[in-house]
Each structure stands twice: as structure tokens, then as C-alpha cells.
Amino acid sequence: MKRSRSVKLPGKTRRLRNALRVLDDELDISKHEGLLRNLDRQISHSIRVVKCGDSIERFNCFMHGLDLIGLFGDQDPFTPFGRWYVDSKFVEYLVRERLLQKVRGPRKGLVAIYFDKEKVRHAGLVASGQFIVSKWGCGNLYCHPTREVSASYGNRIRYFEPLSYEQSKAFFERYRNL
After folding, report:
1. Rounded distance, CA 74 to CA 111, Å?
2. pLDDT tens, 111-126?
3. Exposed / middle / buried, residue 94 (Cβ in 10 Å: 0-12, 13-18, 19+)
4. Whether 146 contacts 106, CB under 8 Å
5. Looking at the whole model, is its pTM more than 0.70?
6. Rounded (10°) CA dihedral 39, 13, 87, 165
């Protein structure tokens, strides 16, 4: 697989990305909007909460990005130990096996996958231009510029053609049976 280069980020963006880690650490998502407002007073940003009709605790960023919300129905989408079934390892499998088709640059509807070196850390959907909609940790869905995410998500972004629910489900079943 061709390696993508890390992007050198401007100082303000680096400071913002490091400051956004506060959301990673706060498990009470009712506090996230207030934390974002407080952060905006210190470092201006364009991150906005997206209201979601689905039960936010029933999916993660990868399920959102791969159209797998609701895959498990009434069953828990995670193991008894709290590990998500659809996780970064599954997305790494999709990338490694070239089941996701890489494309150049962002375009509405594409899947944006964030990497730290070659490790998948985060995913979302391109909303328009340089804006992504993604779920952050245990928190909300956010619409944000591509680089306005927690530093924990890495410095590389690659874009892929989206999969249909049926494709994602079939690939997940294949992966699960490896």
C-alpha cells in the first residue's frame, strides 16, 4: 500500500487538535457541547453538533462511516467486555484487502478515514468540501473541517468510495468468520 505523507499542521490547528482531547476524556456526553463552546472562546473552530435520530450509544464512528448503524438490531453492537464488533481492525481489513476503493481528495458522500501512521483511528463521511460528519468516541455526531478533530485520530486522511449497507454487511460477515 502506498504510504501517504503526514501533513504539517499550522500552530493553531495543532493547539486545537490537542485541546480537543478533552472530549476523548469526558464520558458524560451531555457536557460535550459546553466543552466545545468553552474551547471556542480560547481557540476558534467550526465544529458543530449534528442532531441524530439514532441512539448515539448504539454505534461508533466506523459503523457510521460504513453505513452499518442498526446492523445488530436489538443485540449489543459490542462484546460483553465493551469492545465494538465493527472496529478499526475491520476497517484496516477493508483497506488492506482493497474492499474500499481509495480516491483522491474529498467529495460529498465519500468515506474519510483518519490514520496515525498506518493504523486506522477514526472514520466519517464527507458532508461537503472540507467538512466531515463523524462520531467522536462515546460522544455526539459532529460536522467539522477535516483537520478539526482530536490529535488522537492521527494526521493522515484518506478518502474512499462508500459501500452500500449490503456490501458493508457482507464484508463484515466475511471478516467475522476469518
Report:
1. 26
2. 999 999 999 999 999 9
3. buried
4. yes
5. yes
6. 90
